[in-house]
Amino acid sequence: MSTGPTERAGPLQTVDRALDVLLSFDEYRTSWGVLELADEFGLTKSTAQRLLASLAGKGFLRADPDTRRYGMGPAMWRMAGLWERSGGLSALAEPLLAELARTSGRTSLFCVPDGAHVRCIAAVSGSEGPRRAHPFLDELYPAHAGATSRAYFAFLDPAERRALLSGRPSARFSDLTPFDEREVETLFDTTVGQGYALSQGEYDAASRALAVPVFGGKRPVGSMTLVENKYSDHGDDLLDHLAPLRGAGDELTGLLSNRRPAPPTRRWRRGHGTRPAPHPTTP
Questions:
Q1: pTM of this prediction?
Q2: How far is residue 24 from each of residues 97, 253, 261, 266, measured CA to CA in Å?
Q3: In 115-265, where do the E strands start and end?
Q4: pLDDT for res 37
Q5: Chain centroid to CA 36: how far?
Q6: Distance between CA 109 and CA 137 in Å, rounded?
Q7: Which of 118, 208, 241, 276 could be stapled to 104 by a disulfide with Cβ–Cβ 3.0 to 4.6 Å?
Q8: Interatomic CA distance for residues 272 and 231, integer angstroms
Q9: Contact 247/275 with Cβ under 8 angstroms?
Q10: Neighbours of 125 (CB within 10 A)
Q11: In the chain, what percentage of residues exceed pLDDT 90?
């Protein structure tokens, strides 16, 4: 009896199959059962059982003794932490930031969440030079002030965002800093509607910033920003660079989401209908 492409023998096929299983986990798929995995990937029951048991034996998966389902294991957490501590996320962003800085002349930033702020973990100065004397790296941007933070927090689930931000004191950084919670929520809604955030000195009175969200699957994981001195003559408008900024944000989203062709038989059945469409990177 002939076997399909997912049943071919060989060490590379086995490795590829194991990687497909690990990469199948996301916000919707948090565990696998043996028969379920066999059906989705076109495997025999015995092959699926050996594959899951092998991954669990190395710590990449963990078997629940009650449900007999396999979820992500501690080796996944350990490797993710090692990757991040070695600068993995900033290393992915920096080539994209460098190209944005080169073509726009503006400073480009990539920031990730840090409590009620976002923190800059990568920055590249454009041809116009640094926008200011002190570095952007490790600077915190509060959720209520500026495009850089708004491009991340606007795309959180509203209930999660309110739980994180509601009732927190909001410092004024300039005369343009939004202060009222309802005003800030309106700005979040506007950002989601247009797919980007623009600020004119809410956090730094001398700065203008344009930012877009970056996603990891459905969930926002940070923001990518172009920053300029609002009092300088740049020869063009900051919004002229929205398309390449969006393109860079989408490219980083693709890298973080590991976009790839699905296995031939995968139907993403979860026992409750079909998988919903993923959250778009831009509405």
A1: 0.72
A2: 29, 17, 11, 10
A3: 117-124, 140-142, 197-199, 207-216, 219-229
A4: 93
A5: 28
A6: 9
A7: 241
A8: 55
A9: no
A10: 18
A11: 56
